[in-house]
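Priority: medium. Attachment 1 of 2:
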């Protein structure tokens, strides 16, 4: 029954659970915004936390619905009595099906998390008063190019590039190589990962790449690493400084 049950619970999950984009929008609708530049770091943290809370609410309701419908369709047979032995036998009989449900939960969480950080960064960047182009192909694809491809074609050294990586666990060396070869004025990798190895920080420094982390992570682990900055510093110091250089090209 395991394969049939897998398809059954997968169909319910697809129909019941909002997409990652929808969940992000639900969280964003609840956010009361005042002075995005000053509160960028706290807003980003709040959006991620609020979205995860919303996700867990939907996840719980979806899981209950899966089991409710499974019992209604008699995909599961109720234990004969309420004894511990009867329950353990029931659990043993349908263990593979239960495992599929919770595997689906785990996979769904990973999928949602992959886009959550990027969705909320995009939302907050749209609220600050700076021009940028998105998903631009230079030497590889970059997520944000400030102020524009047009200015980049005139003088790349005045431009600022941000690449968004939720974690730095995969292809980070390749990403560094692609970014450094662009030769833009300022290059940043924004991440929500914590406890990043110092070796990665030093490798980025060799390529003149800055890492952007949550303010709390900067203060906790990277006070002496000058190529690591917090989101507040990016938005209130680095962007305004670079803007002075690109303004004459707009």
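Attachment 2 of 2:
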């Amino acid at each position: 029954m395991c394969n049939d049950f897998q398809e059954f619970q997968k169909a319910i999950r697809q129909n019941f659970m909002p997409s990652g984009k929808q969940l992000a929008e639900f969280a964003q609708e609840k956010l009361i915004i005042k002075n995005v530049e000053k509160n960028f770091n706290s807003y980003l943290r709040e959006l991620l936390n609020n979205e995860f809370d919303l996700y867990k609410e939907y996840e719980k309701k979806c899981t209950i619905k899966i089991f409710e419908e499974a019992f209604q369709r008699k995909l599961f047979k109720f234990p004969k009595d309420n004894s511990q032995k009867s329950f353990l036998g029931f659990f043993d009989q349908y263990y593979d099906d239960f495992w599929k449900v919770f595997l689906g939960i785990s996979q769904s969480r990973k999928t949602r998390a992959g886009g959550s950080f990027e969705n909320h960064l995009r939302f907050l960047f749209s609220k600050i008063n700076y021009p940028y182009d998105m998903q631009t192909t230079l030497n590889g694809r970059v997520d944000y190019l400030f102020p524009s491809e047009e200015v980049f074609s005139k003088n790349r050294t005045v431009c600022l590039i941000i690449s968004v990586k939720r974690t730095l666990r995969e292809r980070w060396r390749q990403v560094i190589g692609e970014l450094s070869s662009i030769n833009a004025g300022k290059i940043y990798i924004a991440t929500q990962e914590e406890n990043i190895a110092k070796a990665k920080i030093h490798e980025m420094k060799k390529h003149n790449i800055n890492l952007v982390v949550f303010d709390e992570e900067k203060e906790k682990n990277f006070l002496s690493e000058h190529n690591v900055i917090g989101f507040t510093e990016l938005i209130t110091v680095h962007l305004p400084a670079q803007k002075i250089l690109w303004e004459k090209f707009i």
